[in-house]
Structure formats: C-alpha cells, structure tokens
Amino acid sequence: MAAKEETKRKLPQIKRLYQKNGRWVYQPPQKNGVRPKPVHLSTDDLGEALAKVEDIKRRGLVEAQTAPMADLINQYLIAKRSRGKHRGEPTTQNARSSLKRFSAHFGSKRASNITTKDLLRWRDSMNGERKVNADGKELPALSQGSVSSYMYYAQSFMSWLVDQRQIRENPFSSLEKEDYPQEIPTRRDQFCTKEQRDKLIQNCDHLDLKAVLFIGFHTAMRRDELLNIRPHWIVTDEDGNPTHFRIQREAGRDGTTKFTPKNGKERVVPINDHLAEFIKENLIGRTPYLICPELEGGKNKYRWEWKRRWNTYMKKQKCEWVTPHIMKHTFVTLMLSAPPEKRPSLLHLERW
Length: 352
What we know:
3-stranded antiparallel sheet; 13 helices
C-alpha cells in the first residue's frame, strides 16, 4: 500500500488525466452542463497518453449526440453519393437496407453509447436469426456473407460518425478478425461448362428469363444493366446486324427509370453471332426496354425481381448451385479457354 501511494505521488498531476487498471484515461471537460464519457487511451505510457490527449483537444469532441440515428444515416448516404463512393443506386440501397437493420436493432440508443459488446450481441442475433415464409415454414439463418455485409456497412457508418465528430471512437476498431471476418468464403471457382450453359438457355420457355440467361451468359452484364437495356443501346453494322451494346447513362426523362453504370463510366460490350441472332428473332421491336418492357420501376430495388422464377427454373434443371453471378464467371472462363485465334486479350476482357 505504501509503495502504491509513493507511485501516485511521483506521477505528474495532470488535470482530467488519471490511471485505471494501469491504463491512462482522459476525462474531457463539461460542456453545456453535460459531462462526457471518459476516453480510454489504451496505453500505460504517459508520453503516449499526453500525445493522444493533445490530439483529442485539437480535433475537438462532440460531447453529446443530438441527431437521431435515422437522420445521421441519411446524411451518411448523401455524403457517400456526393463523394462518389456509392457509384450506383443499388449500392446505396444495399447500404440503406443494412443500416435500417442496424438502426432497428439498437432502437433509440445513441450511436455514441454503442459498445463492442453490443456489436457482438448484434452479430450473434443475426447468426441465430430465422425467418418464416408464408406457409409457416422456418427458413435457414442468415449466411455468413450476409452478416458480414451488414456489419461492413455499419462499420463504414460508424467510421463516418467519427470523422464527423459525432462519436469519439469506432467500436468496430476493437473487434478481432475472428469476430468480424473480412474475407467471406464464396463459390468463386464455380462456373458452367459450355454444354451446361447452352442447355439452360435452350430449355427455358419464358422469354424474359431466357433473354436474361442468353445475354448474361454471353456478355457478363450486371443485373441492373440487364434490366435497363434500351433498344438504342444496340449498335448495328451496315447490314443491320447487332454488333455490340453501348451501356450508357440514362436520365429517365422518357418515362423509363434513371440509370447510371457502375463507376459512372460508359462501356462497350461485344455481341457474338449467337446472341445477335437471338436478339433479331426475339427482342427487336421491344420498347422501352428489351427485357420485360411492360414493367416500370417500383418498390423493388430492381425493375423485375426474377429471384423466385430463377430459383424455380434452376431447381427444375437440377442446377440449384447456379446463381446470376455465376453467369459472369462462366463468361470469363469460357472466353479464356477458347482457342488462341478466338481468345480475347486480358485487357479487352477486363474492359468488357
């Protein structure tokens, strides 16, 4: 006890800086009658603690968060779009739905009061979450990829709050890698063979789904690009044969939905002979879209939510493992495995 008292007397008396369990803690001064929470400096070195205190004083601290969570989320999404971080509307929609789940879980709790333990409890609740469909059947829990995606957007949101001085520190910074996996195991090595691809296209009797399969497998277009193909995107040669798609920005002033390509850049996608023949026989004359021309934009993120029809068809074909993204893998794999005289360069393939 005497040695402990002697150590205390030797420590410099610094206002609002003290030790707890051997670690330095800084207590910011009161502001407008509100006493903020102490800041744990996570160090036992006095010099490092003083440097951190000076940094805190220089940056300033928001002592009390006044804006509701929903307002902060809207400000975050606006900031991301204005800085070009969210290149397309689907990215913003993913972030909005993820943060809506985040906000619903924590309710009226202030972002400044969310701790690392709270995040771990949120993660565990999502891992154990079950959904019930219309028939009362219990569905599986969220996948690891979905949970990590929700936490990724929440982590980005909390980092933005730190930058905006709404909170002092990001509770995600204390999570270990095993608590918050950044690399999600995927099935990126899966793709269809040429025979499987052709069989899936040939056996489909629904024209719009067949168009999705045909164009997706032969061009590797993204989902939002597929559903936004306008007739004027098709460029033809002198004989009127389609040669390529020119994916471009659409203002949506002609009654169609507004569309912005990923990264905001227009690009050209070649059309091979098989796809050109399919387009001439089945899609010419459709307007204002080539796929599901009668559907307009609604409450769904995409103009046509084809997930149920896709899953039903793939189950019928005993190809449940095939997803829309596998069309992209199939396109690249078959291109790279083509004979040398027909194989495109990696530069051209990357541009496509």
